[in-house]
Amino acid sequence: MDNQLERVIKSRGMTVLPDTPQWINRFEIESESSNRIYVIAQRANRTEWGCSCPGWKRFRKCKHLNTIMPLLKNHSNG
Asked: Do 46 and 40 contact (CB within 8 A), yes or no?
């Protein structure tokens, strides 16, 4: 994970997770409406970001990514 991105993620109280072969720049984000924790990550072979929440799995859109995307746009090339 990019050091600047990692600092920003940690400064917002989110937990950085290790990369996997399919996903990089992984971190946890808390749900605002429940006690659930979701994972936001970037596809390793593209600039696409995803979330583990039901909204993203079903519609490929979610409020978690909408909230954090301004931060992620500066780091979309991983």
From this structure: no
SS3 64: helix
**Amino acid code (one letter) for 58:** R
Name the one residue in this structure whose structure tokens are 């490929």: 60
Distances (CA, A) of 59 to 10, 18, 43, 50, 51: 28, 26, 17, 11, 11
Contacts of 51 (CB under 8 A, 6+ apart): 29, 38, 39, 40, 62, 64, 65
The three-point CA angle 47-54-42 to 5° equals 15
CA distance 53 to 77: 23
47 φ/ψ sector (left φ>0, alpha ψ -120 to 50, else beta) = alpha
Q: Tell me the per-residue pLDDT of 51-77, one tens digit each, with 9 for 90 and over.
A: 999 999 999 999 999 988 887 676 544
